[in-house]
Amino acid sequence: MSRKLDVRALANPSCPAPLASDRVVLAHGAGAGASARLLEACVFPHLDNPWLRERHDGAVLDLGTSRLAFTTDTFVVSPLEFPGGDIGSLAVHGTINDLAMCGARPLALSCAVVLEEGLPLETFERVMRGLAEAARRVDVPVVTGDTKVVERGKGDGIFINTSGVGLVAAGRDLRPGRVAPGDAILVSGPVGCHGAAVLSVREGLAFESEIRSDSEPLHDLVEALLEAVPTMSCLRDPSRGGVAAVLHEIARGAGAEIEFEDARVPVTDAVRSACELLGLDPLSLACEGRLVAFVAESEVGAALESLRSHPKGRAAVRIGTVRTGRPRVVVRTALGTRRLLPLPAGDPLPRIC
Amino acid sequence: MSRKLDVRALANPSCPAPLASDRVVLAHGAGAGASARLLEACVFPHLDNPWLRERHDGAVLDLGTSRLAFTTDTFVVSPLEFPGGDIGSLAVHGTINDLAMCGARPLALSCAVVLEEGLPLETFERVMRGLAEAARRVDVPVVTGDTKVVERGKGDGIFINTSGVGLVAAGRDLRPGRVAPGDAILVSGPVGCHGAAVLSVREGLAFESEIRSDSEPLHDLVEALLEAVPTMSCLRDPSRGGVAAVLHEIARGAGAEIEFEDARVPVTDAVRSACELLGLDPLSLACEGRLVAFVAESEVGAALESLRSHPKGRAAVRIGTVRTGRPRVVVRTALGTRRLLPLPAGDPLPRIC
């Protein structure tokens, strides 16, 4: 247990700047390269077990007669309220979606808040109302909770942890490790709306049309999809780090090359304009109401039909294919050329969820 | 859903001062009167279901063939390290103990951290090592997690949420509502050591002998106790708000009067001296390695014998009795007089866990 922290392990030769620090930097929370390196350096050497090794959105525990999915997420989004949602509803959707990505039917949520001294009680109550309404809409009770208060300047209004448990039906097995060369890659709708919506409020930007967060619970879409295609390899919700982070994680988890067509990834005009203005890539912007599905070639038709027949998946499309090759993500452009998609190292957008 | 927040509901006529605020104050996080009023005003009007109505340390969900306990706690203790533990081991013990108080055998933990920009990575790693070692000692894996980073001045080093799941054996039913007049009240050992240990570091106090936190996992003590006395009414770990808060909660939950003898509550000399110096009541100081048990009179002998034969319960004693009467807590002094124990309204010790 006397292992010395190797700070150099945190430095990536391709992006030496703030990541070589011996202190926590914002990029460590961005859900992409720096986050992964932080966990590899400080967490996984101590915590290691078959569940964490899956690097999935949640864990599936075998209870003998049933299988339990268990997941956790803390929400620190700033601002607390944004077009299309607030930290309360986002916390419910985020955890419901993590359970759904494990193939689980959500059973119950917990809610633990850290309040900053001085937060108006009306704000707290409004957030709790948003959280409660979101939980009611998905018909999943919040069964246990916790409230802590920290001094002014030691928090930021409100942070919310929602953990969740759910039951996984027999036979379901959705894991990055199941993704195999030949699998097709689908997305359920336009990407990056949540990230762009939060950013537009935070930066005080006014776009021609308001960008609303896509924050939405996907458990029903997933149930329909898994009924149509029970052999699905893996599902992932592209939250922090966006679709780009998901593709990198799956390439690593599956030990395979991922190739996708840039032009096929659905992006709304409003999100595209915002990204152009701000120099951001929509592929790296968070969603909280979209999923990325990995499915055998033979099931693509059934999967797309199932997604498109559901209100939350109408704009579903195929964006790429998993190929034999070393783990990396390759973009095929509209002109037919291929280039590597780098794993974003910095943080285009801290505190997005 | 247009219910207006009644700020006056937060004001208690017996302690009007800071609680009548329309903003969050530190006392709202102290686990006693103000915390309860905050939840009644801002949370429970929106979130209400049979599990939350139990006001227990966790929820027990019926899965058909098994019963699942589910609990959550965020740890914001300051300082991060103290004699006898750190925020990492405390987070494991706190959640293991909440599961144990539900009568559950702990199955798995989650770990979600909020890091403040600028935290030395070595501190983060040390805390994760403490957490991992504590989890290994109880043989419960940390199966899922999350990492967020907030800007400098928007957090305080590290906050850790640990949620937990466990299985409750058939027939076990530990709930405040099961406590009945005639039940005896036992504590498993000297109280207040955790609170006094944290306070001694925070205030830079040196006592004659160092006060070490009692932070310890109690799942094994509880298993032994429930094997000896399967009909136990309720178990509670006196964390925030200490034994005083537990007695008040149970009086309210059971709708009965609780009478206890001040002089019987075990307190070490060091904790007593610290409390005298600081004007604190050991009854209100947090523990994280003690339990309060409510048990039928006929089982007191078996319960005490079971507790005392376990290394973590050697100093177990009976401190009082549940009586027919309206919900309140009565102290019987060494002189035989009776007085009411008020529910602490303020916060003797913020950020103790």
Question: What is the CATH C level class of the largest domain in chain A, in words?
Answer: Alpha Beta
Oligomer: homodimer
Strand order of the largest sheet of chain A: 9-11-8-12-10-13-14
Q: CATH superfamily of the largest domain in chain A, please?
A: PurM-like C-terminal domain
User: What amount of the residues of chain A lies in strands?
Assistant: 15-25%
Distance between the termini of chain A: 34 Å
C-alpha Rg of chain A (nearest Å): 20 Å
CATH topology of the largest domain in chain A: Phosphoribosyl-aminoimidazole Synthetase, Chain A, domain 2
Helix proportion range of chain A = 25-40%
Average pLDDT reading of chain A: 90
Shape designation of chain A: globular
N-to-C order of helices and strands of chain A? HHEEEEHEHEEEHHEHEHEHEEE
Structural class category of chain A: alpha+beta
Q: What is the architecture of the largest domain in chain A at the second tier of CATH?
A: Alpha-Beta Complex
The total strand number of chain A stands at 14
What is the number of independent domains of chain A? 2
Main sheet specs of chain A: 7 strands, mixed
Most extensive interface, chain pair and sizes: A-B, 85 and 85 residues
Taking pLDDT < 50 over at least 5 consecutive residues as the criterion, the unreliable ranges of chain A are 1-19
Q: Number of helical runs of chain A? A: 9
Tell me about this structure:
The structure is a homodimer of 353-residue chains. Chain A is α+β, with helices and mostly antiparallel strands. The first copy, chain A, folds into two domains: 57-172, PurM-like, N-terminal domain (60s Ribosomal Protein L30, Chain: A, 2-Layer Sandwich), CATH 3.30.1330; 176-340, PurM-like C-terminal domain (Phosphoribosyl-aminoimidazole Synthetase, Chain A, domain 2, Alpha-Beta Complex). Chain A has nine helices and 14 strands. Chain A has helices at 33-43, 50-53, 87-101, 121-137, 193-202, 219-228, 242-254, 269-278, 300-308; strands at residues 59-62, 67-75, 81-82, 85-86, 104-116, 142-150, 158-168, 184-187, 234-236, 257-261, 292-295, 317-323, 328-332, 338-340. In chain A, strands 9-11-8-12-10-13-14 form a seven-stranded mixed beta sheet. Residues 1-19 of chain A have low confidence and may be disordered.
